[in-house]
Amino acid sequence: MSDEKKLAIIATKGTLDWAYPPYILASTAAALGYQVEIFFTFYGLQLLKKNLNLKVSPLGNPGMPMPMGMDKWFPVIGTAIPGMESIMTIMMKQKMKSKGVASVGELRDLCIEAEVKLVACQMTVDLFDMNPKDFIDNLEFGGAATFFEFAGESDICLYI
Amino acid sequence: MANFDQELDASGLNCPLPILRAKKSLAGLSAGQVLHIIATDPGSVKDFEAFAKQTGNELQESREEGGKFYFLIKKG
User: A132 forms bridges with which residues in the sheet?
Assistant: First the structure.
């Protein structure tokens, strides 16, 4: 259908918090009838791993809400303490679960089900010596030109 | 009493799950049939309006009662 709207997204980040915008927007757009393609590059490739082991870091992130007003009195250097990342990741996951926010894996499955096209940047795979077997099956590998083939005709194009 | 064909309980689910579940439920209905949705996400009020407008389905009713949100969407 040529009158179908198109959404093109470039996903560049590989943390738990930043995994949400591309998958939420893509799945919702698909539900609204958009044709969607996400191009995953650099750290964004973490969002395509079979085994999603995404983390959130408070380090260098003053906007991150911390429990018990910790962000008010906790020294910035404290966010660099070993184990802090794991603690914050566990807390974030618990919070999301309690608020009925879908997991990244669940949203990704919904995207796949809605036929969102997932494209992994071949150059990044080569650059970081990533093993293609670590990625989910429902994707293709491509380069910048592949992205523009779709993005050039898109109605909305986002860089995340 | 109920003037709908199918019911979807999206209570406890947050954005964008109520919309995605509704889309899936609507796919199983035929044109003219009505889906009743129950949600607890306050954001779903605006979202279902926007969803209906963009997908050509009709939002027949949107109401709040006892902290829950109820929607009737007629498949277009």
Answer: none
